[in-house]
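At this stage, I wrote out one protein, both as residues and as discrete backbone shape codes, and that material follows here.
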Amino acid sequence: MYQNILFHQETILQTRFLEKALNGQLNSAEDTELFHTYFPQFPESFCLILLRLNTTQQISETPYSDPLLLLQTYLQSELPTACQLQLNQNDLLLIVSEEALDHQMKTLEYLIDNVNREEPGYEIVCVTSKCYDHLES
């Protein structure tokens, strides 16, 4: 039980530091050091990918209890180097290295095409940013 609580708290802290970094709020050397503790493999050059999972059915009518969690689980197994940040109940932000972008976009295109074709109650929309050289850009 305590391991679950600690894991959950660690995940919250990790998410907060990622949010601070993306908003340009790593204001001290200590913040930057803690960020790199949570994300030791954070890419030097990276892109942001926003995935939005739209549902066209009422939540009570959908066959999945938590479709975004299913999406996250799939992405963790298929894109293990991508950092994930759940923004709300529909939006998921991925941070991928520029060098892995082509491969990871092919995986995402395959996923999006299949979900949009095979799951009539769901639609995934994807937006990709330009690549950034460092967190401060």
User: Anything to note?
Assistant: The CA atoms of residues 22 and 135 lie 7 Å apart. The mean pLDDT is 86. The first strand starts at residue 46 and ends at 55.
